Sequence to fold (96 residues):
Amino acid sequence: MKKYEIMYILKADLDDASRKAEIEKIHGYLTKANAKIAKVDEWGLKDLAYPIKKQNKGYYVVIKITCESADSFKEFDRLTKIDNNVLRTLTVVDHD
Fold:
């Protein structure tokens, strides 16, 4: 099993209920692809270094997952790129 760390940024103007629903939806993309979410760390609202999609703030979430291969989150990447509530995602191999 390979370990990955995924950071994604949600739009800052989502209310609490919408943000929680969006996070559950995003995590559902991964669990459907047989990835196991090991840890979720919500960093909260932060200023962006530069505007992304005309937004100056974003809600940061970092998750650690384990999965068989990188194919497990290809659909996650595709779906988050077309989701208007997701500003940016970054996936890296976790060496912990």
The chain has a mean pLDDT of 92. The radius of gyration is 13 Å. Residues 10 and 53 are 11 Å apart (CA to CA).
